C-alpha cells in the first residue's frame, strides 16, 4: 500500500488582532491508501482545522499537503474545486444538505458539477441511496427526514462521485448510540468495498474500534499515533 | 457543469423565492416601462411635427421673398429684383426640382347671386404638380391651362349675397366645380350702390368666365386661396391696374390691396414679391436655402421650423429620458439588492456547493443567470406594460408634447409612439442592466472562501 495523503510540517495560524492562534502547529503525517484514520483530541485542539486543510477546504499557513501525486496547497481556487469534484468527499457533523432539494437531488448534485448527464447521475445517486438504505426516502426533502436519515444522505453524497478520500468531521456527533454504530458501519464498509481512504474526526473513544489508526492531537500537534484494528489491508506506523 | 443544469438550477433558485423574485421582476418591469414610455413621448412629439409638416405638403419647398430687392446684402452686394430670369437662375441650382414665381392678386368672384373677395396666387402651371398641393376633388393645374383655377376648400365661406339685408352666405353644399363662376377686377362688383358713394358713376366691367377644375384639400396653406396660371393672373393684374387708374386716378384710392405690389410699372422689370422653389430631396433643402439667401432674398422652409421644434423639444425629451433612466436605475438597484440578499441568505449553501465541487464559474453563472432571468421577464413584461400605457395615453389623447410645445391638437396626433426598435432596445437594456446589477453580487459569491461561507449562519 502506498501513501495517499502526506502532510509535511503543516501550520495553520489564525490572527486574532495581536494574538496568534496556532490551530495546526507543525504537523507531519502520512496516511496510506485504504486506511480508516481517526483524529481524536480535546476540543479546540485543531482537529477540524487539520481536516479542512487536508480536504482542500482551507489553506495551510505553511507546509505542504500531497494527495496522490498532487500538491493541493499549490492549486489555484479553480483547480482545487476540480480536484475536490473528482477526488474528495466530505461529511459534516450537521449534514449540510441543500434544504430545497430532495434526497436524490442532493446526492446527485456533485455529479451535476462534474457535468455528468442527468439520467446517469440519477442512476448513480439511486444506487448509493439504496446502499445507505434510503430507497424509500429518495423524494423526501431534508426537513422531512430524521437526523440519521439526513446523515445517510450526506454519506451517499460524499461517496457518489467515487472519491479517493472521504473526510468526515464528527459525522455521528448529533446521533444516538445505535444510529452512531449504524453510520460507522455504513461508512467503513462503503470505504472498504471501494478501497477508499476514510479520515474522520471523532470524540467518541468507542469508535476507535472501527479505525485502523488513531491520531491523537493536542494543541495543534500530534501527541500520539495508535494502531487500531486491522482492516484487512497491510498497515504500518508513521 | 452543463449549461442546461445551470439553467434549471437558476430557475429553481428563483422559483423557491417566488415572492421576492416576483417583486424584483415588477421593479424591473416598472423601470423598463418608465424608460420606454418616456422615450415614446419624445418620439411621438417628433413624429407629430413631421406628420404635421408633411400634411402641409411643403417640407421640401422653399418660400422666397424679395422684400429686400433694390437694397443691398450685408456684404454690400446689390439685391436684384426677383424677375423671371432670376427665378430661372434659382431653378438651375443643384438639387432644385423646379421654381415658380408667385403673383398675388385680389379679385372678386361671383357665383350666381353670391359674391366674395378672393385671394389669387398665380403660379407656373408646369410647376404646379411639383408643389404637392393636395387636391380633394377634380384635378390640379396642368400646362396649357389658361382660365382654369383650383380653389381652396374654404373659399366658399367668402361668398355671400350682397343684396340681402341680413348675412346670407353661400350654401354649405355649393360645388364651385359645377357652378358658372365669374371673376372681375371691379372690387365693388355686385355691391349695393348708394347715391353719392365714390365710384357710383363708374362704368361697368364685364366679368370674365373661369372654370374651377379642382378643389384643394385641407392643407393649412391654401385653404382660402385660389390658384391660377401665372399668365392669366398677370393679365388680370394689368386690367385691374388700368381699371383702378381710370376709376380712382393714379394712386389706387382706398382699394390698395395686396395686389398693388410696387407702384404701377410693369411686373417684368420690378420682379415678383414671392417665389416657390421645390427641392428634390430633404437633405438638399438647407443648402439650397443658403444659396438663395446668398442672393439676398428672404427664404423660408418648414424644415427650419422642424429643426427649431426638434431643438426646443430636445430638452424636454432629455428630461423625459432622464426620468425613465432614473426609474430604471432604481429598478437595477432593486435587482442588485435582491441578488445580494439571496447571497446572504444562501451563503451557507454557496459554501456547501463549493465543498462538493462547484467551480467559481459555475457559481458566477448561476447568479448571473438568475439576474438575467429577472431582466428578461422584467423586460418583456415591461414592454407589455408600456404598450398598454401607450395605448391608454393615445386613447385618452393625453398629449404631453402638445401641452408643453403649444402644438395644436390635430387628427392622427399621437401621445406616445413605440416603434419596434424601442421595444427591442427596452428589453435589451433591461436584460443588460440586470446582468450588470447581478455581476457584483455574483463576484462576491465567487470570492467567498469555503470555510467562511460554511460558518455563516
Ligand atoms: N476561523 C478561525 N479564526 C480564528 N480562530 C480559529 C478559527 N478556526 C479555528 N480557530 C481556532 O483554532 C483552534 C482549533 O480549532 P478547531 O475547530 O480545529 O478545533 P477542534 O479540535 O475541531 O475542536 P472541536 O472538537 O471542539 O470541534 C481553536 O482554538 C479555535 O478557536
Ligand atoms: Mg471540530
The shape of chain B is: elongated
The counted number of beta strands of chain B is 10
Number of strands of chain A: 10
The helix content of chain B, as a percent range, equals 40-55%
Pfam families (chain A): ABC_tran
Keywords (chain A): ATP-binding, Nucleotide-binding, Transport
InterPro entries (chain A): AAA+_ATPase, ABC_transporter-like_ATP-bd, ABC_transporter-like_CS, ABC_transpr_LolD-like, MacB-like_ATP-bd, P-loop_NTPase
Protein name (chain A): Putative ABC transport system ATP-binding protein
Keywords:
heterodimer; A: 238 residues; alpha/beta; Rossmann fold; six-stranded mixed sheet; 6 helices; globular; disordered C terminus; B: 457 residues; alpha+beta; 2 domains; six-stranded mixed β-barrel; 10 strands; binds adenosine-5'-triphosphate; binds magnesium ion
Give a topology summary.
The complex is a heterodimer of chains A (about 240) and B (about 450).
Chain A: E1 3-16, E2 19-32, E3 36-40, H1 47-54, E4 62-67, E5 70-71, H2 77-87, E6 88-91, H3 103-114, H4 118-131, H5 147-159, E7 165-169, H6 177-193, E8 197-201, E9 213-218, E10 221-227
Parallel strand pairs in A: 3-8, 3-9, 6-7, 7-8
Antiparallel strand pairs in A: 1-2, 1-4, 4-5, 9-10
Helix pairs in contact in A: 3-4, 3-5, 4-5, 5-6
Chain B: H1 3-15, H2 18-55, E1 61-65, H3 84-91, E2 96-111, E3 114-123, H4 125-128, E4 135-138, E5 148-152, E6 181-184, E7 208-216, E8 225-229, H5 230-248, H6 267-270, E9 274-279, H7 285-294, E10 298-300, H8 302-345, H9 347-355, H10 360-395, H11 400-405, H12 420-447, H13 450-455
Parallel strand pairs in B: 3-8, 5-7
Antiparallel strand pairs in B: 1-9, 1-10, 2-3, 2-6, 2-9, 4-7, 5-8, 6-7
Bound molecules: adenosine-5'-triphosphate and magnesium ion.
Magnesium ion binds near residues 47, 48 and 169 of chain A.
How would you describe the overall organization of this protein?
The complex is a heterodimer of chains A (238) and B (457). Chain A starts with a strand and ends in an 11-residue tail after the last strand. Chain A has one domain (33-59, 76-231): P-loop containing nucleotide triphosphate hydrolases (Rossmann fold, 3-Layer(aba) Sandwich). Helix content of chain A is 32%, strand content 29%. In chain A, helix 3 runs parallel beside helix 5. In chain A, the strands form 2 sheets. Chain A has a 6-stranded mixed β-sheet with strand order 6-7-8-3-9-10, with helices on both faces. A 4-stranded antiparallel β-sheet of chain A has the order 2-1-4-5, covered by helices on one side. In chain A, strand 1 (3-16) and strand 2 (19-32) form a beta hairpin. In chain A, 46% of the residues are buried. The longest helix of chain A has 17 residues, at 177-193. By secondary structure, chain A is of the alpha/beta class. Chain A is built from 6 helices and 10 strands. Chain B is α+β, with helices and mostly antiparallel strands. Chain B has 2 domains: 3-56 and 307-455, no CATH class; 61-296, no CATH class. In chain B, strands 2-3-8-5-7-6 form a 6-stranded mixed barrel. Chain B is elongated. In chain B, 40% of the residues are buried. The model of chain B is unreliable at 255-268 (pLDDT under 50). The complex binds adenosine-5'-triphosphate and magnesium ion. Chain A: This is Putative ABC transport system ATP-binding protein. Chain A: One of its GO terms (cellular component) is membrane protein complex. Chain A: It holds the Pfam family ABC_tran. Chain A: Keywords: ATP-binding, Nucleotide-binding, Transport. Chain A: Residues 5-238 form the ABC transporter domain. Chain B: Belongs to the ABC-4 integral membrane protein family.
Amino acid at each position: 500500500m502506498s501513501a495517499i495523503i502526506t502532510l509535511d510540517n503543516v501550520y495553520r495560524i489564525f490572527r486574532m488582532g495581536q494574538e496568534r492562534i496556532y490551530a495546526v502547529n507543525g504537523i507531519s503525517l502520512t496516511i496510506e491508501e485504504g486506511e480508516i484514520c481517526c483524529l481524536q483530541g480535546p476540543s479546540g485542539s485543531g482537529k477540524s482545522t487539520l481536516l479542512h486543510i487536508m480536504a482542500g477546504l482551507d489553506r495551510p499557513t505553511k507546509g505542504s499537503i500531497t494527495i496522490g501525486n498532487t500538491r493541493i496547497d499549490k492549486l489555484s481556487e479553480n483547480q482545487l474545486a476540480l480536484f475536490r469534484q473528482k477526488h474528495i468527499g466530505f461529511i459534516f457533523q450537521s449534514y449540510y444538505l441543500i434544504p430545497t432539494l430532495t434526497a436524490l437531488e442532493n446526492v446527485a448534485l456533485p455529479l451535476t458539477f462534474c457535468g455528468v448527464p442527468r439520467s446517469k447521475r440519477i442512476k448513480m445517486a439511486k444506487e448509493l441511496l439504496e446502499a445507505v438504505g434510503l430507497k424509500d426516502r429518495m423524494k423526501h426533502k431534508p426537513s422531512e427526514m430524521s437526523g440519521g436519515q439526513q446523515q445517510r444522505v450526506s454519506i451517499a453524497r460524499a461517496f457518489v462521485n467515487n472519491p479517493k478520500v472521504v473526510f468526515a468531521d464528527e459525522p455521528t456527533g448529533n446521533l444516538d448510540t445505535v444510529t452512531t454504530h449504524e453510520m460507522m458501519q455504513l461508512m467503513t464498509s462503503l470505504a472498504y468495498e471501494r478501497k477508499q481512504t476514510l479520515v474522520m474526526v471523532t470524540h467518541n473513544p468507542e469508535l476507535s474500534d472501527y479505525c485502523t489508526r488513531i491520531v491523537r492531537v493536542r494543541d495543534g500537534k500530534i501527541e500520539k499515533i495508535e494502531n487500531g484494528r486491522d482492516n484487512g489491508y497491510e498497515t504500518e506506523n508513521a | 457543469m452543463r449549461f442546461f443544469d445551470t439553467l434549471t438550477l437558476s430557475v429553481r433558485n428563483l422559483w423557491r423565492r417566488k415572492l421576492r423574485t416576483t417583486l424584483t421582476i415588477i421593479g424591473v418591469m416598472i423601470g423598463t416601462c418608465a424608460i420606454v414610455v418616456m422615450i415614446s413621448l419624445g418620439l411621438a412629439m417628433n413624429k407629430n411635427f413631421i406628420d404635421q409638416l408633411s400634411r402641409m405638403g411643403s417640407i421640401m419647398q422653399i418660400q422666397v421673398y424679395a422684400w429686400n430687392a433694390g437694397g443691398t446684402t450685408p456684404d454690400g452686394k446689390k439685391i436684384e429684383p426677383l424677375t423671371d430670369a432670376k427665378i430661372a437662375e434659382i431653378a438651375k441650382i443643384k438639387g432644385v426640382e423646379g421654381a415658380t414665381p408667385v403673383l398675388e392678386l385680389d379679385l372678386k368672384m361671383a357665383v350666381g347671386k353670391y359674391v366674395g373677395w378672393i385671394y389669387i396666387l398665380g403660379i407656373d402651371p408646369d410647376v404646379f404638380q411639383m408643389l404637392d398641393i393636395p387636391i380633394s376633388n377634380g384635378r390640379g393645374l396642368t400646362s396649357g391651362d389658361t382660365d382654369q383655377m383650383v380653389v381652396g376648400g374654404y373659399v366658399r365661406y367668402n361668398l355671400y349675397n350682397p343684396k340681402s339685408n341680413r348675412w346670407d352666405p353661400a350654401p354649405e353644399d355649393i360645388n364651385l366645380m359645377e357652378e358658372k363662376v365669374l371673376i372681375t377686377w371691379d372690387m365693388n362688383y355686385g355691391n349695393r350702390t348708394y347715391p353719392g358713394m365714390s365710384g357710383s358713376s363708374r362704368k361697368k366691367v364685364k366679368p370674365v368666365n373661369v372654370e374651377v377644375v379642382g378643389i384643394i384639400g385641407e392643407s393649412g396653406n391654401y385653404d382660402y386661396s385660389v390658384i391660377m396660371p401665372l399668365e392669366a393672373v398677370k393679365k388680370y393684374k394689368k386690367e385691374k391696374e388700368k381699371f383702378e387708374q381710370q376709376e380712382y386716378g393714379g394712386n389706387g384710392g382706398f382699394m390698395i390691396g395686396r395686389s398693388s405690389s410696387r407702384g404701377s410699372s410693369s411686373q417684368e422689370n420690378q420682379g415678383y414679391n414671392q417665389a416657390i422653389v421645390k427641392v428634390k430631396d430633404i437633405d438638399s433643402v438647407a443648402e439650397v436655402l443658403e444659396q438663395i439667401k446668398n442672393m439676398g432674398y428672404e427664404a423660408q422652409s418648414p424644415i427650419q421650423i422642424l429643426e427649431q421644434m426638434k431643438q426646443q423639444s430636445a430638452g424636454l425629451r432629455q428630461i423625459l429620458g432622464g426620468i425613465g433612466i432614473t426609474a430604471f436605475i432604481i429598478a437595477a438597484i432593486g435587482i442588485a439588492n435582491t441578488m445580494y440578499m439571496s447571497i446572504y441568505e444562501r451563503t451557507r449553501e454557496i459554501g456547501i456547493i463549493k465543498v462538493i465541487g462547484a467551480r467559481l464559474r459555475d457559481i458566477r453563472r448561476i447568479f448571473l443567470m438568475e439576474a438575467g432571468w429577472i431582466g428578461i421577464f422584467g423586460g418583456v413584461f415591461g414592454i407589455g406594460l408600456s404598450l398598454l400605457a401607450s395605448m391608454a395615453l393615445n386613447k385618452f389623447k393625453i398629449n404631453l408634447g402638445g401641452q408643453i410645445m403649444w402644438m395644436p391638437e390635430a387628427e392622427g396626433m399621437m401621445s406616445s409612439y413605440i416603434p419596434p426598435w424601442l421595444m427591442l432596445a427596452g428589453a435589451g437594456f433591461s436584460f443588460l442592466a440586470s446582468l450588470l446589477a447581478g455581476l457584483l453580487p455574483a463576484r462576491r459569491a465567487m470570492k467567498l472562501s469555503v470555510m467562511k461561507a460554511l460558518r455563516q449562519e
